[in-house]
Amino acid sequence: RLPAGEVERHCRPDPGGEVLLRQAMQRLGLSARAYHRVLRVARTLADLAGAERPGAAQVAEAIQYRRSLDSR
């Protein structure tokens, strides 16, 4: 498991993903812990897609997973 500082370095999304994630943080009130969890999931999704970095699609999917878990 990556520490928070390493998550920032290894899981950084592309510019489109970064904008989407920042907007989600503001609109959904995500905590720093939730931010890092979304980044980790987005990185995993990018790996599965063969992408070098998480993009907006992977970030959006990770946010959706987060929201579906929060609504339970």
UniProtKB/TrEMBL annotation:
Xref: InterPro entries? Mg_chelat-rel_C, P-loop_NTPase
Which residues are the signal sequence here?
none
Protein name in UniProt: Mg chelatase subunit ChlI
Mg chelatase-related protein C-terminal domain: which residues? 2-66
